[in-house]
Amino acid sequence: MTDSDTSDSTHSSDQDSTANDGGALGWVRARLNATSPRRLALYALLAAVLVLFLSPLWSGFMTSLKSQTAFATTAPYAPPLPSEMVAQPWFEAWSRLQGGMFNSLLFGIPATIFSAFLGSMAAFGLTKIDWRGQLAVLLLFVAGVFIPYQSVLVPLRVFWGMVGIESMMLTAESSVAVLPVIPALFAALAERADLIELMITHTAFGIPICTVLFRGYYLTIDDDILEAAKIDGASTLRVYWRIILPLSKPMFAVTLIYQFTNIWNDLLFALVLVTSSSSHVATQKLNELQGAMVSEYNLQMAGAFLVALPTLIIYVVFGKQFAKGVAGEQ
Amino acid sequence: MADLTLDGVTKVFQDGNEEVVAVDDVSIEVEDGEFLVLVGPSGCGKSTTLRMVAGLETITDGTLRINDREVNDTPAQERDIAMVFQSYALYPHMTVHGNMSFGLEESTDLPDSEIDSRVEETASMMGIKDLLDRKPADLSGGQRQRVALGRAIVREPHVFLMDEPLSNLDAKLRAEMRTELQRLQEDLDTTTVYVTHDQTEAMTMGDRIAILDKGELQQVGTPLECYHRPNNQFVAGFIGDPSMNFFDLELDRESEAGSSDGAATKGALVRDGFQYSLSEESLETVGDVTDVVLGIRPEDIELLESGSSVHDYEATVDVVEPKGDENVVYLEFEGAEYDGTFVATVGGMHRIEAGQSITVRFPEDAVHIFESRTGTALQNRQLSATEEPELTI
Questions:
Q1: Contact B91/A229, CB-based, under 8 Å?
Q2: Which end of chain A has less neighbouring CB within 10 Å, N or C?
Q3: What pLDDT is stored for residue A189 in this prediction?
Q4: pLDDT value of residue B264
């Protein structure tokens, strides 16, 4: 609706402008004349909303470029004077956050992929394969979506205490001690035991929402296609692999973006599960930038931007597919 | 190549606590290379029957055999059949080539080069060679239809199953594809089961047709057999367009009526002033059944200026539908209280107008008599030796 509206009005105003003299000012005036008051009001409103939305980002960005004193003496949204402009907060933030960001990627990427992939498989089983008791299982998944993280923190801690990933990895290391390379791998995994716990936890908590999202999408896929594949000789697994999976691209974009953002931004599980400071993740490191005595706002702002960067990149990379997935296109 | 046997095949669906019988004890033998059309109104169980043959539905009771091997419990993947769906069911993310090679990749161990050459061969046979790199979304309805057929043909399966494959095409294309499909099936000589609700398709395409209603098999036979020798009133009414005219009548053995040769006899079918006298033989075949249905095909009704036979009636023309080659004439009896219109077809050059009074003749050798209660045919029309359809069962 709005799209066609806009293109219509631009079209007509273009025609008007050709009738006017070629000057840039004249062109602007002609456009303004050709635009209805309603549309002008709309633009004004949109501009106002834009300012409202961007002002925190803008203020944060400006702050990250100011020295401590400049921050204390100027308004947050005011750009720094050239003499007071500094890049140092960015470098310091990067040096203090990079380890955490690396850790976050280390568990976040597998957790994102696993939860999306397992969710897709579960949804396939819940929509396109017929078996008894499906509804009960589906309800369990739906209930899983609504479990608040806060309510499981203590059981989660106790559970991982009982499982003991670290000792498992160490046992594995000693039992394959004669082999080359592999023991070292297990040793490395034992060092990152906290991150493994975090990865599995996030995968598990991500599966329900991914399942529900994929399920909605798979319900729109024509059963005839799957039956045709079956008659063409494909087993259920092959049908999933060759038909369902390729058709799921847009929904994978949705779940990958959603899950990655969620997992990357999570602090709660990390605080509960990650104890060794070498395994601290990005959000924990960012939290540590707050400092105990003095708040270095420029440093914090630069850090916040750095930590937000990966999610931004994910959106840009998968944006087109994401839009398709949200619109339910195939 | 294979023959296909359905022996007492039954499908019962569970709907809550209720059992719905979708297909009831259907037995059909399809010979190797035969083109069998399953036809019936919607909900008659024809698609369910096809899906059971395909392995997409389980068989509740009875046995299904392909080449004398029972396949009731063989999964669809291993039955070596190919199916064409009404929706075509092309894989939207694959090219035409991908769609056609998928089945060979999944069901055979053929090397890629062999698969490619078979796909190309089939594609040129179907006239879709130029489309091999396109995706289904970029194809027209007719092209998709060809791809769907090509996808089935390239597999060289034992049996083709087709579920109303032409119903999404426009009328002209449908008629073309009908002929082409018949030619293809003849060339390939692959056993084919074809489901349709369209009796024209059934009549024109099938070597034999099987007519289903309410899950029950009504008749299996050649198209002409079903047309001229219907087992029952349902088949008589379903096959043929416009359909056969039916008149609910009672047998009155005392009724005085002249027979067609002028001699006075007793015995006629009557109701509300309408009377159709029967010959001795007909009376004999009807036996002691009293409630019967008289049937006559529209093209067998003769329209006359005036008549004298005992099977002539006065009628008024209600509506005329000119079709060019023929006129479809809707008529009403004049005088008799028996109401209800009936249909006759006459040559397109025959001038006839609505409101006109006319004499119609129901020749006795052209009428069918069915038992009212069961619908069973008591007597079918008589045919001369040359008209007699070849009986296959």
A1: yes
A2: N
A3: 83
A4: 56
- Using a CB-CB distance cutoff of 8 angstroms, which residues of chain B are in contact with residue A233? 77-78, 103, 106-108
Residue A227 contacts B where some CB pair is shorter than 8 Å: yes
| CATH code that applies to domain A89-328 | 1.10.3720.10
ipTM of the complex: 0.85
What is d(CA A246, CA A48) in angstroms, rounded to the nearest whole number? 42
- Select the residue of B75, B87, B155 nearest A224 (Cβ to Cβ): B87
Q: Are residues B253 and B180 in the same domain?
A: no
Q: How close is the nearest chain A Cα to the Cα of B196, in Å? A: 17
Nearest to B91 by CA among B100, B99, B83: B99
pLDDT digits (tens, 9 = 90+) for A273-308: 998 888 899 999 999 888 767 788 889 999 999 999
Residue type, A41: A
The count of other CB atoms within 10 Å of the CB of residue B43 is: 14
Q: Are B222 and B389 in contact, with CB atoms under 8 Å apart?
A: yes
Low-confidence stretches of chain B (pLDDT beneath 70): 1, 255-265, 336, 385-393
Question: Do residues B175 and B273 both lie within one domain?
Answer: no
pLDDT given at position B385? 64
**Rounded Cα gap, residues A163 and A177, in angstroms:** 22
SS3 B110: coil
For residues A274 and A282, what is the distance between their CA atoms, to the nearest angstrom?
Answer: 12
Residue closest to A123 by CA, chosen among A204, A216, A252, A200? A216
Overall pTM surpassing 0.90 (yes/no):
no
Q: Do B85 and A228 touch (CB under 8 A)?
A: yes
Cβ–Cβ under 8 Å, residues B242 and B228: no
pLDDT at A92 over 80: yes
Biggest alpha carbon distance in chain B? Answer: 81
Residue type, A53: F
Model confidence band, residue A330 (pLDDT cutoffs 50, 70, 90): low
Contact A228 B92 (CB under 8 A): no
Which backbone phi and psi does B27 adopt, to 5 degrees? -125, 120
Say if residues B218 and B212 touch (Cβ distance below 8 Å): yes
Supply the DSSP symbol for B301: P
Please check the confidence at residue A237 and state whether its pLDDT lies above 90.
yes
β-bridge partners, B208 = B36
Same domain assignment for residues B126 and B186: yes
Assigned domain for B211 exists: yes
What's the structural domain count of chain B?
A: 2
Q: Are strands B326-333 and B341-347 parallel, antiparallel or unpaired?
A: antiparallel
Q: B84 Cβ partners below 8 Å, 6+ apart? A: B148, B149, B151, B152, B160, B161, B162, B163, B165
Structural domain including B267 reads: 245-379
CA distance B152 to chain A (A): 8
CA distances from A225 to A220, A232, A242, B84, B115 (A): 11, 10, 11, 11, 21
User: Reduced to 3 states, what is the DSSP secondary structure of residue B85?
Assistant: coil
